[in-house]
Amino acid sequence: MSTPLVNKVTIVTGASRGIGQAIAELQAVNGASVVINYARNKGFAEDIVHCIQQNGGQALAVQADVSNIADLEVLFQATIDHFGHIDILVNSAGIMTTKPIEQVTEQDFDREFAINVKGTYFACQLAAKYLQAGGRIINFSTSVLGQMTPTYSLYAGTKGAVEQLTRQLAKEFAPKHMRPPHNILHVVGQ
C-alpha cells in the first residue's frame, strides 16, 4: 500500500465529523500524522483518534474554536509540541446558515464570518509562520457560489471571501517556498 504522506503532519480544522472527519481519516490512511481539531465534540474527536490509532496511524485531538485567534495559536503550538512540525493545513471548519435575508441576524452574520472567514484567514496566517517549506494549505469553497440559491446569501458571502483571500494569499506564499493555498470546491447538501 502506498503511503504518500508518511512523515507529514496535517492539521484538519473541524475534523470531528463530516467532511473534516473524512479528510482526516484519508490523510491518516495515506500515512500522515493527523491533528483532529474540534470545537465542542470531544467524544467524536477522540473516537476518530482512536480509530486512526487502531489502524496503525498517529493522531491527536485538539480543542480550538477557529474563530478565536488565541485558540488557533494553541492548536498550532499543540501540534508542534506533539509532532515537531506541520506540513499541511486543511481549513474545513465551517458553518452554514440558510435563511432569507430578512431573517438573518447580526449574530448569525458575525458568527458565520468569524468561523468561515476569520478562522480560515488567521489559520493561514499561522501556517505562514509554522508550515515547513513545501507545505500546503487547503481551503474550502462551495458550488453554491455559482448556483445563486435563495437563502444561501450569508454562506455564499463567506465562501466568496474565502475564495478571494485564497487567491491573494497564493501570491504571498510563493516566495516562502510553500505551495500556494488553494480552494477545494464542495457540494453542499445532496
Fill in the keyword field for this structure.
190 residues, Rossmann fold, alpha/beta, globular, disordered C terminus, 6-stranded parallel β-sheet
How would the blueprint of this fold be written?
Blueprint: E1 9-12, H1 18-29, E2 33-38, H2 42-54, E3 59-63, H3 69-83, E4 86-91, H4 106-130, E5 131-142, H5 144-147, H6 153-173, E6 182-186
Parallel strand pairs: 1-2, 1-4, 2-3, 4-5, 5-6
Helix pairs in contact: 3-4, 4-6
What do you see in this structure?
The chain is α/β, with parallel strands linked by helices and 190 residues long. The protein has one domain: Rossmann fold, CATH 3.40.50. It has six helices and six strands. It has helices at residues 18-29, 42-54, 69-83, 106-130, 144-147, 153-173; strands at 9-12, 33-38, 59-63, 86-91, 131-142, 182-186. Strands 3-2-1-4-5-6 form a six-stranded parallel beta sheet, with helices on both faces. Helix 4 links the parallel strand 4 and strand 5 (131-142). Helix 4 runs parallel beside helix 6 (153-173). The longest helix is centred in the middle third of the chain and has 25 residues, at 106-130. The protein is globular and about 50 Å long. Residues 186-190 have low confidence and may be disordered.
